[in-house]
Amino acid sequence: MGLFDAILKRFANRDIDWDDLEELLIGADLGVPLTVEILQQLRSLGRTLKAADVLAECRRRILSVLPTTEGMALSPLASGLPRVILVAGVNGTGKTTSIAKLAHLLTREGHKVVLAAADTFRAAAIEQLDHWATRIGVPLIKTQYQGDPSAVCYDAYEAATKRGATHLICDTAGRLHVRSNLMEELKKIERTLGKKDASAPHDRLIVVDATTGSNALAQAREFHASLNLTGLIITKLDGSGKGGMAVAIQHQLGIPTLFVGTGEGVEDLHRFDRERFVEDLL
User: Fold this and answer.
1) Which long-range contacts (CB under 8 A, 24 or more apart) does 125-130 make?
2) CB–CB of 205/232 below 8 Å?
3) What is the pLDDT of residue 239?
């Protein structure tokens, strides 16, 4: 059950109980700061409120937080060089699968994509991306297990340039427990890519699992500190009734959601539509 349905059910035939409403908003993963703002705004109305009043304010405030993603479409660079997209995320979020789906989406839109298997400290990630690359018909540059991630990205950039690719998507580190090493690895990748294009990487995305709630916010905050994230891919939004964490991440960290995963199929990744998101998922 989504947030709006839960509010209607809880307060359909009775006045608003502030404690109950606070519980619903926090339970929907909107985060404490935004919950407090919504409650303060409702209280400031100074009158008896019904469920419809609460819904209207929640919808208005959430829409005001979520930006339109026009101009965030990962469009090809005017220079003709490959647009470099680094993708991070902890194991289990669907990172590698989402990268394959993103490559497939961009290919369907008429772009030429090259993949780089730079999460080299997880053998399964290399194998999984290799499988997906074959399945969707996209070239993959890889190295052996525990190889140098920056060298993979360098080789992949050269391959993307030679092939006239519009996009290079790099599967990067999927761990957080040694943050200093993660930061150094990512900085080295950026320095290496910068030798080819001073503006690369152009996008730094994180993949988060919608069903993990506040953990997704914590992961985004940690990676943001290391990577200065520019966008979010949310997975497992198929019928979970979750999604509030996308609002919390935007509100607290300023990271916009660019894509949402709604199923297991290769075509179940879609560009984020905030109106649809609010109506369908909240």
Assistant:
1) 125/95, 125/96, 125/171, 125/174, 128/96, 128/97, 129/96, 129/99, 129/100, 129/171
2) yes
3) 58
Same domain, 143 and 252: yes
pLDDT of amino acid 250: 96
Angle (CA) 255 260 262, round 5° = 155
Q: What is the pLDDT at residue 60?
A: 92
Q: Give me 212's structure tokens.
A: 């993990």
Q: How much is the pTM? A: 0.91
**Token duo for residue 226:** 């290391």
My answer on whether 59 and 92 are in the same domain is: no
Residue 271 near residue 245 (C-beta atoms within 8 A): no
Q: Are residues 124 and 256 in the same domain?
A: yes
The answer as to whether 77 is a domain residue is no
Query: What is the residue-averaged pLDDT of the chain?
Result: 89
- The full length of the chain comes to 282
